Amino acid sequence: MAIVRLAELLDQPAASAFLRGVVASGRVGTAYLLHGPAGVGKGTAALAFARSLLCERGAAGATAAEADLFAATTPPAPAQPAPADDACGVCRACRKSSDLQHPDLRFLFPVSGDERDLDDTIAETVAAMREDPLYVFAYEKAASHRLSQTRDLIRELAYQPYEAARRVVVLRDADRMREDQYSALLKSIEEPGVTVWVLTSSRVNRLPATIRSRCQRVRFAPLAEETVSRFLVERAGVAEDDAALIAALAGGSLSRALELADSEVEPVELRDRALALLEPAQRGDPAALWKACQTYMNFGRTGREQLRRMIEFHQLWLRDLLRAQAGAPRERLAHRDRETELRRLAATITPTEVRRRLMVLEEALRSIDGNVTADLTLFSTLGRVAGARLGEGEWPGYGHARWDY
Ligand SMILES: [Zn+2]
């Protein structure tokens, strides 16, 4: 995860313009809440904003030139004067904050695991962020901000900043805290002072209203499919056809796209496995379909997340069918590697039928969150997508299927 400049934020013109306006005006509020879907650049923006607030040649006003004379390495001279609304990127403060080593930048993020290992986990995460410009934060369900970290932070707030005119606290995924942590932080967030709070959240409703109401909210939008696809090709070295499929699956989230691009099994293969499941349903063979569903769900050991992913592949395929029916060019298709098959299918099925199937899948996605039996849901969904009236008097006989769930 590279700390970029505000001007370099990917595809978030409104948020970027707002934050740059704050930097340029020098009228910095006490707390900001960067919110929107996961994986669209809120965390990157929070650190970029922090860096621009700590930059010595920006709003803070001090000069770094003298200190740099004695620095071990001379930074490259800026080609242009430092922008008034962004970090200069070359001063001492900018270099420290890019390395997450600025003493007045406090960066807190949720962690999970054994309490004894948490110091290591935190250090490893920060090291990974420094090393890997494409670092993606992935949390376990129970990940949360560590108590000792917020406690240390609150103690530190009593003191003046070390080097800069202000202190910037970035709380990544601030919705992952306990009640008592919020109440402890609330007092500081309420009081205007030398500390600027930058919170990010993709689950803003989980933040207490008392915290939310004290922050200026900055909204982030899902990224365009083209933006994600271009990033994958240009920055992550993903092949173009794969990038199109991954970007379409990622639904506007760059971090999700990077995770998919990084998965052990190629997305194209996952897609083929998912689509192949429909084949027995189309043949009208309920016994084979039931067996395929149970095998896919690995008799209950396959997680719901994978089931969700599988259904999303079917959705994406049908969306491509609609696009093909509307005469979309190759570049607009997610499944470019199966273009011929797509176009042939598109000619044999009506758009109304495609939409009916999409509705069936939508229902299935909603029911996954409820308390349903996964293999049965899969069985009936694929049956209904294929158009066969499975489940209505045509259930597989005991001789053909295993009923051992
Ligand atoms: Zn700077």
Question: Mind explaining what this structure looks like?
Answer:
This protein has 18 helices and five strands. It has helices at about 15-25, 40-55, 65-70, 90-100, 120-130, 145-155, 180-190, 210, 225-235, 240-250, 255-260, 265-275, 280-285, 285-295, 305-325, 340-345, 350-370, 375-385, and strands at about 30-35, 105-110, 165-170, 195-200, 215-220. The radius of gyration is 25 Å and the shape is elongated. It has a five-stranded parallel beta sheet, sandwiched between helices. The longest helix has 22 residues, at about 305-325. Strand 3 (about 165-170), helix 7 (about 180-190) and strand 4 form a beta-alpha-beta unit. The structure holds zinc ion. Zinc ion (ZN) binds near residues 55, 56, 87 and 93.
